[in-house]
TrEMBL record:
Keywords: DNA-binding, Transcription, Transcription regulation. GO terms for molecular function: DNA binding; DNA-binding transcription factor activity. This is GntR family transcriptional regulator. It comes from the Bacteria. Residues 11-78 form the HTH gntR-type domain. InterPro entries: GntR_C, TF_FadR/GntR_C, Tscrpt_reg_HTH_GntR, WH-like_DNA-bd_sf, WH_DNA-bd_sf. The keyword Hydrolase does not apply. The lineage of its organism: Bacteria, Pseudomonadati, Pseudomonadota, Alphaproteobacteria, Hyphomicrobiales. It holds the Pfam family GntR.
Length: 226
């Protein structure tokens, strides 16, 4: 029966349920503000009702869903408050993280980050190919990897987990604005290279300023100001 998974597999099952939920959320199979039932989540994830029932408290604690009296569960609704809070969180965390990263990151890590960005930038300006769907996907991965490399370098599991949850919310915010598109690949890669150049100077204040400019630019796109 679908609700009788062995207890020893409980942790893995809960993680699988969480991963599948967030995958469908970011793939826009589930939309911000949408009402959804536990049975619908069972159908969507292919997991048991028991697994979904264990998942719900975690999603509620992370602010990814909320229970609305007499209406059921609602996926996080994107509004100005969420945009303000999510980007303010990024600024607080990433300012400190990049200051430490600038002082401690190895030259090899910086060289790798630079190569990844320059490769995307070079391909995006190639006249014979232009910006393909595949390049947009690669650019998005390079984009997220820069930020995650900086955060994970802290070696702080509490910060990493909080940042991960916030990054899910950021990706929900007007996805067509905050996710990369063919138009945004070039300017975003240039913003990132400015950040990398600042880190390479080993001047924390310069790196913080570059990160501030980048995050504020992303927030402006989320607000429809750019």
């Amino acid at each position: 029966m679908e609700e009788t998974e062995p207890v020893r597999d409980g942790h893995n099952l809960r993680e699988k349920a969480y991963d599948r939920f967030t995958h469908h959320l970011l793939a826009r199979d589930i939309r911000p503000g949408q009402f959804i039932s536990q049975r619908q989540l069972v159908s969507l994830t292919g997991l048991s009702l028991g697994a979904i029932r264990e998942l719900v408290p975690r999603l509620e604690s992370e602010g990814l869903i909320k229970t609305v009296p007499q209406r059921g569960m609602q996926v996080a609704h994107v509004d100005l408050s969420l945009i303000r809070d999510a980007f303010q969180f990024r600024l607080f965390i990433e300012r400190e993280a990049i200051a430490i990263f600038t002082a401690e990151a190895s030259n090899s890590i910086l060289a790798k980050l630079r190569r990844e960005h320059e490769s995307v930038l070079a391909e995006s300006t190639a006249h014979d190919k232009g910006v393909t769907v595949e390049l947009v996907d690669r650019a998005q991965a390079v984009d997220w990897n820069l930020h995650w490399t900086i955060i994970s370098s802290l070696g702080n599991a509490i910060i990493a987990d909080a940042y991960r949850v916030n990054s899910i919310k950021v990706r929900l915010i007007r996805q067509e604005q905050t996710l990369l598109s063919d138009v945004l690949v070039l300017p975003v890669m240039k913003e990132h290279l400015t950040i990398i150049e600042a880190i390479e100077t080993r001047d924390p204040s310069r790196a913080v300023a570059a990160m501030d400019a980048h995050i504020n630019s992303a927030r402006a796109r989320a607000l429809g100001l750019r």
